Amino acid sequence: MFQGFISFHSDTGHMEDSRTHSSVTAAIYAPIGEKALVSRIRQRLEDAIATGVLAPGDRLPGESALASRFRVSLVTVREALQHLRATDLIYTKQGRGGGSFVAVDSSHAHALLERRIAALSRAEITDLATYYRTIVDGVLRTISAMGLEQNLGAVRETFLRSDPSDGAEARSVQGGLDLRLAGESQSVRLVHEQIRIQNDFGALLWIGLDDPDLRNSIRTLNETMLNEMISGDTDAAIQAREEAVTISLRWLLSRRNDAQRHERENNQQNA
């Protein structure tokens, strides 16, 4: 059912879907839900910009396309975009070749990310990481139960060909890998839950991929996970993946503590 859901783009090193959009970028525009629509759209796009999933100069889909993808009204989309314009995260060009584009520079994105991380509670981060682990555990065990491990050979080859040069590219590869694994489980529910958790937390969980050493460690653990799945050792694969999540979680909690300390120091200086 999900064959061809994600393919590899050899020019960028990213996993992309068959419609030429990055699978992770496409997940940003998944249906938004039914509550607090404007704030949830704004937060989702802010997170994507802050973590580099949406880079400076990237063009957002048109307002009508966004409304269709988020499954909200055009008025809701316009209100969310207006907030992003007011905070200088996007700008709009009129006429041919126009649209809404990511405007934030690296320093602005860094400040935005620091505020976002500082606002998270330790319990919230830990709970979301546990949820993330549960989904991946379900994906890998479903693949094993259905005897689909050998289908992961192509997934492994795609992953090994990726060569992310920075954290943003690595997060795109990581998100694409997670989505493709969910697709290989042939479970609509698991695909839906993987998209949901990526929108809520994925980019933040893997923010440590900005660090080259952590990026290499996570890549090695991902490769181990794929190799163990193909060889039929599901428990070892899950252990490797849980170790990757644990490493990233510790990094994020440390970053949160630093961000909160910087916020307190700035508040004291401005008092």
TrEMBL record:
Pfam families: GntR. This is GntR family transcriptional regulator. It comes from Brevibacterium aurantiacum. PANTHER family: MANNOSYL-D-GLYCERATE TRANSPORT/METABOLISM SYSTEM REPRESSOR MNGR-RELATED. Residues 35-105 form the HTH gntR-type domain. Signal peptide: none annotated. CDD domains: WHTH_GntR (cd07377). The lineage of its organism: Bacteria, Bacillati, Actinomycetota, Actinomycetes, Micrococcales. One of its GO terms (molecular function) is DNA-binding transcription factor activity. Keywords: DNA-binding, Transcription, Transcription regulation. SMART domains: HTH_GNTR. SUPFAM superfamilies: Winged helix' DNA-binding domain. InterPro entries: Bact_HTH_transcr_reg, Tscrpt_reg_HTH_GntR, WH-like_DNA-bd_sf, WH_DNA-bd_sf.
